[in-house]
Amino acid sequence: MLLPLPPFFPHRRNTDGSFDSICLKCLLTIAHERNEGDLAKYERYHVCNPSVISQRVFDTAHENGRNSA
Q1: Which is it for strands 11-13 and 29-33: parallel, antiparallel or unpaired?
Q2: Using CA atoms, how far apart are residues 5 and 60, in angstroms rounded to an integer?
Q3: For the chain, is the Cβ count within 10 Å smaller at the N or the C terminus?
Q4: Nearest Cα to 30, choosing from 10, 59, 15?
Q5: pLDDT digit string (tens) for 18-54?
Q6: What Cα–Cα distance (Å) separates residue 68 from each residue in 31, 52, 64?
Q7: How far apart are the C-alpha atoms of 43 and 48, rounded to whole Å?
């Protein structure tokens, strides 16, 4: 049995020097902090919302269907 991969959180540095943490599983920005080290507490407790994931899949499928017509 395959276990689901845990979320992965790359950090993006913003023009104002702050940092965002982005969940690559659900594609949400889960935290925004001035200090990059402060992002870990949000990443530790993040739970992907299945409705967000399924909505993104639906939107992508709908866009692809519309573009092929």
Answers
A1: unpaired
A2: 22
A3: N
A4: 10
A5: 999 999 888 889 999 999 999 999 999 999 877 766 6
A6: 36, 25, 6
A7: 11
28: nearest Cα among 49, 45, 44, 5: 49
Rounded Cα distance between 62 and 45, Å, is 32
Cα–Cα dist 26/18, whole Å: 22
Residue 21 CB contacts under 8 Å (≥ 6 apart), including other chains:
9, 10, 11, 29, 30, 31, 32, 33, 39, 42, 43
Alpha-carbon separation of residue 48 from 35, 64, 68 (angstroms): 23, 24, 30
pTM over 0.90: no
C-alpha–C-alpha distance, residues 60 and 67, integer Å? 11
